[in-house]
Amino acid sequence: MPTPNRGKRSARATILPASWTAFLGRVLRPPYTLLLLLSTSIGFVNAADYYVSPQGNDNAPGSEVKPWKSIQHAADTLIAGDTVFIREGSYNERVLPKNSGKPGAYITYTSYPGERATIDGAGIAYDWAGLFHINGTSYIKISELNFTNSAYFGIEIRGDVQHITIEKNHFHKCHSSAVHAWFNKARWTISDIVIDGNEITETNMSGSQEAISLCGVNGFEIMNNHVHHIHKEGIDAKEGSSNGKIHHNHVHDFYTKFAVGIYIDSSRSEGKNIEIYQNTIHDAKSGISLATELGGSLTNIKIYNNLIYGNRHGFSIHHYEKPGTHLKKDISLINNTFHNNELAVRMTEVKENFANLIIRNNIFSGKGRAATNLGSLKEEDLTMDHNLFGPASKIHTFGKNTLKGDPQFINAAKADFRLQKDSPAIDRGSAEKAPSSDFDGNTRPRGKAYDIGAYEMP
What we know:
The strands form five sheets. The protein has a 13-stranded parallel sheet with strand order 3-4-6-9-12-15-18-21-24-27-30-33-36, with no helix packed on it. The chain is mainly beta and 458 residues long. Helix 3 links the parallel strand 3 (49-52) and strand 4 (83-86). It has three helices and 40 strands. The chain has a single domain (46-419), classed as Single-stranded right-handed beta-helix, Pectin lyase-like (Pectate Lyase C-like, 3 Solenoid). The model is unreliable at 10-43 (pLDDT under 50).
């Protein structure tokens, strides 16, 4: 969290492009050249800290001792580099930022240190919009705030928007998504979105959208979020969202039997270059699911080092498909641990084309079927090897170098899926395209060869 500077403006350096400096240097003569170089290398962007309090006044200067009353007044005032510190209390208002920040000079909205402010949308009516509504403004950071009782989205991002960071917030009782980014193909581009360390509960009460929903975003990172006890899907990168990472999230417990923990759906667009790793997902219909619902395609989707347990399906190629051919190419499922899922891998209703699906170094264990059903997938489109199946598994597709036996987890009942020293998964995996580290960040391999599953043991 930024440290308050007690309402004083501070100078922050900016640098003019070298081409401008060189041009002006040729035109001007000493001593003006020296003055030019000094001024262009230490040019200034003013930055200030402001304060908001339930006891404040919007006619006040916004200082720590004389704060404003409304967050919206701050949103109308802040410019690049500014921070507003919001004192503890409840603010019954919508917030629509007016200005953008700049590279190295974000506009920041955050709670006052040691306190927690709540933006409460109770009684405020709006549709397909956010309680905190970003529309065409960029370089904004929203940190350590509570959002509750949103009539639709908690935070909405739309328009030509870049560089938005949403971190360490708590979302509760959002009618739709906690965080939603929506693009218009004809006009808008959304890129460089970071959603980090938030807790999300009781969202999607209308059954619309997902807890975190990115539509057509190019460049994103969704990490360290705790998403639980919600009414629909957890995390969704859809409508051609590309070039992103989804990692270190804990997603679990849904109020509907159809919910998916992490969902990647290109819809009618092209989704590509997405990594899903080091997530923990349980008590869902599907842990991780891929789809091309309306005729799009998915390319280069890497799924590795995840713990996926206690779901109906561990991993699925979703069956919500429009008839026709929808290419899924270069999909890899490597070094994951699946336990006590009714069916670990499910593709029974998929009819579109595949190219290069890899299933390698995974543990499939637990009660019930806990196996793989790859449906009508053609043999030439599948590479499946070095997987360990639990002794109760009914295996539809074995693959090569298959092992079968108890993986010997340290304590599966308490979701400790590290391996005991005599586990048959140790040193029995393949190095080919395997991740260089494990669920805990330990380097692979640590023994004679790669281990199977999400953990690499000493």
